[in-house]
Amino acid sequence: MKIPPPPVHRGVRIAGTGSYVPEGLLTNDDLARMVDTSDEWIQQRTGIRRRHICDPTTEGTLVMSREALRRALDQAGLEASSLDMIIVATVTMEMTCPSTAARIAGELGATPAAAFDITAACCGFLYALNLADTLVRSGRADRVGIVGCDWMSSIIDYDDRSCSILFGDAAGAAVLEATDDPSKGCIHQTMHADGRGWPALYIPRRDRDLADGDTVEGIRLGCLRMNGREVYKFAVNQFQNSISGALEAAELTPDEVGSYICHQSNLRIIESAVEKLGLPREKVYVNIDEYGNSSAGSVGLCLDQMRTKGLIDESKPSLLVAFGGGMTWSSCVWNW
Predict the structure, then answer these.
(1) Nearest to 184 by CA among 8, 7, 12, 332
(2) What does the alpha-carbon distance between residue 81 and residue 318 come to, in Å, rounded to a whole number?
(3) Annotated catalytic residue: which of 28, 54, 163, 263?
């Protein structure tokens, strides 16, 4: 039997988005009672006022991811059985086997859709978006559900001020499907990593995982370790380079982009990019004050909130950008 080649003259559309944010809150004042810090100190350095935290008895990566994708399907008016694939991006999977994606597929009724997890830290949702777009555009899949989710409170040492003030829990999801218009979808994308920088942001499970310079004394294995100075320096440079590179590759000026959907790592990093690159401030979405850094959940949460609030000008392309542990960085210019 001759197998026909996949269709190549087609585009990709986002049929629906969804998100899940726990109701539990951890404010800056709460943290000040746990570690040497203050509300003023945190807001000055990060822009964060509070973050949402899972109830570990009823919530976690599986629940957040499943509900975010369920809401994306509901918004799209689709059944999970119509999905060809589910991709979940997370560094906080509750089990490595089975994957979070496989469990979601089983619980939502997406079987026998392909299902797998990817780990790209804060870049996870963008990695998943770029992968899904490529698979749908090439004809290898017709409809793909993607989720970015991290249960960061499960891997935070709340005695460690460098990490505890930054992170919250959230999930964002989207359903991508084929369209006959080849101009729609991702018109430029990048996915990069430099493993040489891994000691700046990592999760050691055993003593032998510790980076040179880290010591066992005072370290809680299984919790996130961060060299804040190195991460900040990397993030400022790579964030700006990713945005300027995407604008150049897509032959766009900052004003020709309808919205900038950025990973929420630190308000100061976002503000620096706005100032240095001349980005229209009103087009750069910010929610870090309310949610903190939700890692792989960050970009997907922003995307869903912006679509729900009608903040995306679909007459113009959107630029999505993220960076994270690995070290990883990624971008996407999406044509609606």
Answers:
(1) 12
(2) 29
(3) 263
Q: Which amino acid is at 157?
A: D
pLDDT score, position 202 = 94
pLDDT tens figures, 30-81: 999 999 999 999 999 999 999 999 999 999 999 999 999 999 999 999 999 9
Cβ atoms of residues 114 and 143 within 8 Å: no
Domains of the chain listed by start with CATH number: 11-183 (3.40.47.10), 186-335 (3.40.47.10)
Q: Answer yes or no: 241 catalytic.
A: no
Q: How deeply is 269 buried, as exposed, middle or buried, from its count of CB atoms within 10 A (0-12, 13-18, 19+)?
A: buried
Distance of CA 240 to the CA centre of its chain: 18
pLDDT at 1: 47
In the set 28, 130, 293, 335, the catalytic residue is 293
Sheet holding 318-324, edge to edge: 185-193, 328-335, 318-324, 259-262
Q: 293 an active-site residue?
A: yes
Apex CA 271: angle with CA 295 and CA 317, to 5°?
75
The dihedral of CA 203, 204, 205, 209: what is its sign?
A: positive
Answer yes or no: 263 catalytic: yes
Beta strand pairing call for 185-193 and 201-202: unpaired
Among 140, 66, 148, residue whose Cα is nearest residue 103: 66
Residue in 242, 123, 82 with CA at minimum distance from that of residue 131: 123
Q: 3-class DSSP state for residue 74?
A: helix
Q: Which residue is catalytic, options 54, 122, 149, 262? A: 122
Write down how long the chain is: 336
Mean pLDDT, 10 residues at a time, the chain of 336 residues:
61 98 97 94 96 97 98 98 98 96 98 97 98 97 98 96 94 98 96 95 92 80 91 90 96 97 95 93 96 98 97 96 95 97
